[in-house]
Amino acid sequence: MPVNLALGHVSNDFLIAALVIYSLAVLTFAGDFAFGRPRRAVVAVTAAKQPALATVGAAAGTSSADAGQDKTAADSMPELAVPALRALFQADAWVRAAMALSAAAVVAHAVAVVTRGLAVHRAPWGNMYEFLTALTCFAAIFFLGVMVRYRAWSLGVFVMGAVVITLGLTETLIFTPAGDLVPALQSYWLSIHVTAMTVATGVFFVSTVLGVVYLVVDRYNRRAAAGRPVPSNGIVRRLPTLEQLDRLAYRTVVFGFPIWTFGVIAGAIWADQAWGRYWGWDPVETWAFITWVIYAAFLHARATAGWRGRRAHYVQLLGFASLTFNILVVQIFIAGLHSYAGVN
Amino acid sequence: MTELRTPPVDQDGFPAEAASEQSRPAPATAHGAGDWLRWAWRQLTSMRIALILLFLLALGSIPGSMLPQEGVDPGGVAQYYKSHPSLAPFLNHLGLFNVFAAPWFAAIYLLLFTSLVGCVVPRTFRLAGSARARPPRAPRHLNKLPQSAEYSTALAPEPALEVASRVLAGHGFRLRQEGDWISSEKGYLREAGNLLFHLALLGVLISVALGGLFGYKADRLLVEKGTFANTTSDLDVFRPGRLVTGTGLPPFTITLDKFNASYISSGPQQGQPAAFDAHVTYTAHPGGPSRTFDIQVNHPLNIDGANVYLIGHGYAPVFRVTDARGHVVYDQATAFLNGSAANLLSQGVIKATDAQPEQLGFSGVFVPTAIDVSGTLASIFPAPDRPMVSLIAYVGDLGMNSGISQSIYQLDTTRMHQLTASPQLLQPGQTLHLPGGRGSITFVGVQQWASLAITHDPGQVPALICGMAALAGLLLSFLVRRRRVFVRVRGSVVQVGGLARTDASGGFEAEFASLAAELKSAHQRESSQQDTETE
User: Fold this and answer.
1) Is residue A338 part of a domain?
2) CB-hemisphere CA count at 13 Å for A323?
3) Which of A96, A293, B273, B336 could form a disulfide with B348 if both were Cys (CB 3.0 to 4.6 A apart)?
């Protein structure tokens, strides 16, 4: 079937619209920092006893002993979680506006990806441009879910900001019009292997931004603890605590790691069908393996004394660095079987 | 893998998931070799060393992707030797042109897997032990646990505990009831999944080794109408596994009936291939029925456990050569190879060894859709729309009897001299008459060739099974939470406490809240039933 060029143009228009709305969302998230009600973000991921499930404004890590002592014979039942969406509607106006803009941008972005797929009659991640467009879309959808579920909207400016930068560079530097694929990519495994890799990369994209925020907050805290001068602009005070950031980043990696593993396995099955071997140390395969090993090291580092916290997050960033290297350097500049980027 | 410097029981009274040994200082010199071995083993199976080995594995893989590798790109290695003559032998000495078969790389992953086994096997026994052991005693103060609830009930303690144990058992908790409390635990699959993941990785390694020992790979270039049999002598390249002799290959034969390639003819992607089909006829064994199959890039042919893949294609121009006597000494399609030139511009040679009085040789360039770009022949499209060959003729000794084996794609012109000053262009049907009546060459037409890879890998299915098992184990260990719920009834007060490993995927707060609510309503229901019975 020939490429539907009109639909391809629709896709491009939606992508530009998404880019504009994302930018507005980032500005609104920033506006919340500048003008919104001061409050500590509450991320409902801690297992410690605290009213994290319910109220906004509670300090994290309330001592469980204190809460327990006051109990009388009267019933004290743990509260069932406030539905995430209701918590969102009770949030600050800036937050609600930013979340609404983010949702609108994600919808426009998703429409752009879907129409591109309809235009070319296949999964719309067959070259580098499509891949980056789709992975930022998955990252934005995933992070929107994280923000709603964990009330982590103070992180929106960072993740959506990273999405805007990536998508903007993709659009301006490597735009590729809708087109057909070489025979090697004409397989239903494209929708399995590359989809898994794209989703996993989108998830790791989010965990990377969270890891960077963790390291910034960690540095701020250590400077403050050492009595060194720290900027007092209140940004850090509005962010989740170090422990909450650590948990959120960890859970994000835990979500992405099995998807990445599945993507590698699916890739091996496809390689076996297309090239006659399931693993051949093709440069891209090698770097997918390196990335997998580094994220595995992150998961282990978190359970090793002396490696928790800062060091573990450096490992995580190293993992994303190798992933990025694979996408931007290996697939484009190093000859191998995976040379499908279509970037000149 | 074991965790260092963590007590075997963490602050919540939960056995730490991975703690078995604590780091101890290296033994003093007065101790014997046994102590040193034990110390070394403890180090090797510690998480810290496993972590370092993981990093080394990642680091060691990098040269395998940056430098050309023997197994993947032997031509690239040869090229590297030419461009870096002093550096290449040194790199070769370090095994950097064959990283994934190098002893040092094997040392890293074998140590890693030893570390893994040394950690996983004791844990398997511990898991088996803890799955048989009863849940621990309930702590004295349930309201100090991370999750707790408290309510009053009209039930007497005995029936209240009975109701609670029914609710908890209904949720699959393992129970222990003593005195005024119930202790229950759930989520052993988490540790089981973790073990499955690590053992499955070991299985992947063994599967890969299995393929390396008992598998084989072979290549065969086949011109249209050509046939080959799957024997070592008839294959172009045969790379057997360590324990494969090559005598027991499946005895199939394959004929390439027709090769079709289609290309995008307009737009920005002009010249990009759209489809490749190798239509073949094959017989699984001599005298067997012949069947047809369309081998495509993502659609291999399976015969008797061997897979046949389409891995390359190109053009084979047909030439007829007559010698000075007028005898036809060469009449066949000759495979020309495409290097990296655009649009399938290909090169090849013709060796007329039977030509008299002297042997004739030609080196040629085939252009599928030819145009003249300021005196140079270029190809503007990969399909044979305007095919043309450019030939240089040589006469003399081809050197075929020198005892040194020759590539059929290269002409050794050291003992030949050039007959034509400049390359001669021919279109299909045209003939080039050699000067001095030495004969002629006719460009008859053009056929296509397909390059087939034949592989057999007995480790393939085990590797897939182990890979899926690893993924299942990973999901179990990430999704399942190990958690404990305690119930204590004192007088008319029911206390419920719960704790989960904090690393788990979260959501225990919600689970505990709904469980506590369920316990409370079960107690209310039971007491109201008792009321109606007494009335």
Assistant:
1) no
2) 28
3) B336
Dihedral sign from CA coordinates of A192, A193, A197, A200: positive
Q: How many CB pairs under 8 A join A and B?
A: 202
Partners of A79 on chain B (C-beta within 8 Å) are 513
At residue B346, φ and ψ (nearest 5 deg) are: -125, 160
Establish if A78 belongs to a structural domain: no
Domain assignment present for B417: yes
Residue A78: which of B71, B147, B467 has the nearest Cβ?
Answer: B147
Q: Kindly state whether residue B474 falls inside one of the protein's structural domains.
A: no
Of A75, A293, A302, the CB nearest to B152: A75
- Domain of A247? 5-54+83-333
Residue of A nearest to B455 (CA): A276
B382 found inside a domain: yes
pLDDT digits over B44-53, tens only? 878 888 889 9
pLDDT-derived band of residue A341, with 50, 70 and 90 as boundaries? low
- Domain co-membership, B121 together with B63: yes
Does the beta-carbon distance from A290 to B58 stay under 8 Å?
yes
Quick: pLDDT tens for B336-347.
988 767 788 899
Cα atoms in the Cβ-side hemisphere of radius 13 Å centred on B206: 9
Answer whether residue A198 is part of any domain.
yes
Q: Which of B143, B465, B480 to mutate to test the interface with A (most CBs of A within 10 A)?
A: B143
Question: Model pTM?
Answer: 0.83
Helix (H, G, I), strand (E, B) or coil at B359: strand
Yes or no, beta carbons of A300 and B5 under 8 Å apart: no
Residues B143, B73 share a domain: no
Cβ partners under 8 Å of residue B340, min gap 6: none
The domain tally of chain B equals 4
Distance (Å, rounded) from C-alpha B23 to C-alpha B43? 8
Check B297 against A322: CB less than 8 A apart. Answer: no
Residue-wise pLDDT for B76-130, tens only, equals 888 889 888 999 899 999 989 988 888 999 999 999 999 988 888 888 888 888 7
